[in-house]
Amino acid sequence: HLTDKLNRAAFKEDTYKTTQDYKTERELAYRNNEKLQPFNKKEWIINQGNKLTDGSNLMIKEVLSGIGMKNGQFVTDLSDIDKIMIHY
C-alpha cells in the first residue's frame, strides 16, 4: 500500500521504521494505535505502542474497527462516548 506525503511517496509499511524508538516486533501495536488515534503524530503512536505489555490484544490482534459507546449503547456523537468497543 502506497501513501503520498506531500508528493513524497512511501510505502505504508515503512511509515514508522525511520522514527526514533521504533521496534520491529511492535509494528502491529503501532498500526492498531494509529487506527484508534488517527490524528496523532507517529512519534506519539510509537511512544504509546512501546508502553503496551507483550500480552496486550493490541500487540497480538489486528484492530478491525472501533465503535463508540455510552452506558452500553452505540452512539455517534463523539462528545457522548465514554467507552470504545474494539473489534479484532
Briefly characterize the structure.
With 88 residues, the protein is an alpha+beta fold. Helix content is 27%, strand content 24%.
Mind explaining what this structure looks like?
The mean pLDDT is 87. The protein has helices at residues 27-36, 42-51, 57-60; strands at residues 2-5, 8-11, 65-70, 73-74, 83-87. The protein is elongated and about 40 Å long. The protein is of the alpha+beta class and 88 residues long. It contains three helices and five strands. Helices cover 27% and strands 24% of the residues. The protein has one domain.
Write the layout of secondary structure elements.
Blueprint: E1 2-5, E2 8-11, H1 27-36, H2 42-51, H3 57-60, E3 65-70, E4 73-74, E5 83-87
Antiparallel strand pairs: 1-2, 3-4, 3-5
Helix pairs in contact: 1-2
Please report the number of helical segments.
3
- As a whole number of angstroms, the C-alpha radius of gyration is 15 Å
Read across the widest sheet, the strand sequence of neighbours is 4-3-5
Level of helix content?
A: 25-40%
Largest sheet: 3 strands, antiparallel
What number of structural domains do the residues give?
A: 1
Number of beta-strand segments: 5
Mean pLDDT: 87
Low-confidence stretches: none
Order of helices and strands: EEHHHEEE
Q: How far is it from the N-terminal to the C-terminal residue, by CA?
A: 21 Å
Structural class: alpha+beta
Fraction in beta strands:
15-25%
What general outline do the C-alpha atoms trace? elongated
